[in-house]
C-alpha cells in the first residue's frame, strides 16, 4: 500500500482546508514552498563550496633530560 496515493493526498488536503481555512491555506503553501526552495539552495551551495581548511595548533614542550641517580651520592 502506497502512503502517498492520490486518495490519501486528497484526504490530507481536505483536512488541511478544514483546519486552516480557505484564507490561510495559500499562505501556508507559499511559506512551505519558500522554505523548501531556500533549503535546496543552501544544500546546493554547501555542495559547491570547497571545504574550509582547519587550523591545527601544535604545542611543543621543551625536552626534559632525565639523569639516573647516583647511588653513591646518598
From TrEMBL:
<keyword id="KW-0812">Transmembrane</keyword>
<keyword id="KW-0813">Transport</keyword>
<dbReference type="GO" id="GO:0043953">
    <property type="term" value="P:protein transport by the Tat complex"/>
</dbReference>
<dbReference type="InterPro" id="IPR003369">
    <property type="entry name" value="TatA/B/E"/>
</dbReference>
<protein>
    <recommendedName>
        <fullName>Sec-independent protein translocase protein TatA</fullName>
    </recommendedName>
</protein>
<dbReference type="Pfam" id="PF02416">
    <property type="entry name" value="TatA_B_E"/>
</dbReference>
<keyword id="KW-0472">Membrane</keyword>
<keyword id="KW-0653">Protein transport</keyword>
<keyword id="KW-0811">Translocation</keyword>
<comment type="function">
    <text>Part of the twin-arginine translocation (Tat) system that transports large folded proteins containing a characteristic twin-arginine motif in their signal peptide across membranes. TatA could form the protein-conducting channel of the Tat system.</text>
</comment>
<dbReference type="GO" id="GO:0008320">
    <property type="term" value="F:protein transmembrane transporter activity"/>
</dbReference>
<keyword id="KW-1003">Cell membrane</keyword>
<dbReference type="InterPro" id="IPR006312">
    <property type="entry name" value="TatA/E"/>
</dbReference>
<dbReference type="GO" id="GO:0033281">
    <property type="term" value="C:TAT protein transport complex"/>
</dbReference>
<comment type="similarity">
    <text>Belongs to the TatA/E family.</text>
</comment>
<keyword id="KW-1133">Transmembrane helix</keyword>
<feature type="region of interest" description="Disordered">
    <location>
        <begin position="45"/>
        <end position="74"/>
    </location>
</feature>
<comment type="subunit">
    <text>Forms a complex with TatC.</text>
</comment>
<feature type="transmembrane region" description="Helical">
    <location>
        <begin position="6"/>
        <end position="25"/>
    </location>
</feature>
Amino acid at each position: 500500500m502506497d502512503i502517498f496515493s492520490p486518495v490519501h493526498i486528497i484526504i490530507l488536503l481536505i483536512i488541511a482546508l478544514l483546519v486552516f481555512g480557505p484564507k490561510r491555506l495559500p499562505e501556508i503553501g507559499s511559506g512551505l514552498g519558500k522554505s523548501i526552495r531556500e533549503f535546496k539552495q543552501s544544500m546546493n551551495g554547501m555542495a559547491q563550496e570547497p571545504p574550509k581548511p582547519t587550523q591545527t595548533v601544535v604545542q611543543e614542550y621543551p625536552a626534559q633530560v632525565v639523569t639516573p641517580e647516583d647511588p653513591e651520592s646518598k
